[in-house]
Amino acid sequence: MYEPNVVGDWHEYDEHAGLRVRVHGLEAAEPPRGRDDAAEGQTYFRLRVTVENRGERHLGIHLEDGQIDVRIGRDGEAAFIDWRNSQFIEGFDVYPLRRATAVLYAAGPEDSLSQVDVQIQLRVDEEWADRRLWTGGLGLQEPVGTHAATLRDGLALQVSDFLREQAEEGTA
């Protein structure tokens, strides 16, 4: 079992030399074109998914609806995704030393937003990359400065311990 990434961490894809992706910028935010009626009574949040090409050739990137799954709370319920306000990466050629960023608006009950899991399945040059998971939550700060490694390692360790406990309960 691989360990999930922490929101703010980069993940490098072995099968696509130089390609890396990260989920970051997880914060409470109102959508630019107004709230969707289906999200009434819920708290909106925004997250960014950045794809960076550090390789030697350009790569065609697709990160559209259906390739991003957002789950919230201890039970991992689906968050409401506001497709109308979100911006995706649809068939964009990311050249060497360039980035492309998708911005996703979602909503959920405020008490569930302390735990947010984001699963990404990137499509690169018409090939599907492996799914990867990032975990974080509203109110948790992304690692910055001298305490970055400690905070990231602490949260990653907590997530790993939780997943290990859940796996052990399921095998009993």
Give a quick set of tags describing it.
172 residues; mainly beta
Question: What does this protein structure show overall?
Answer:
The chain is globular. It is built from one helix and 14 strands. The longest helix has 24 residues, at 148-171. It is mainly beta and 172 residues long. The two termini are 18 Å apart. The strands form three sheets. The protein has a five-stranded mixed β-sheet with strand order 1-14-11-6-7, with helices on one face. Strands 2-3-4-10-8 form a five-stranded antiparallel β-sheet, with no helix packed on it. A four-stranded antiparallel β-sheet has the order 9-5-12-13, with no helix packed on it. Strand 12 (123-124) and strand 13 (127-128) form a beta hairpin. It comes from Streptomyces nigra. This is DUF4352 domain-containing protein.
Instruction: Tell me the radius of gyration.
Output: 16 Å
- The first-to-last residue Cα distance is 18 Å
Mean pLDDT, to the nearest integer, reads 87
Structural class: mainly beta
Shape: globular
> Mind summarizing the main beta sheet?
5 strands, mixed
- Please give the count of helices: 1
Give the spatial strand order of the biggest sheet. 1-14-11-6-7
Low-confidence stretches: 144-148
Protein name: DUF4352 domain-containing protein
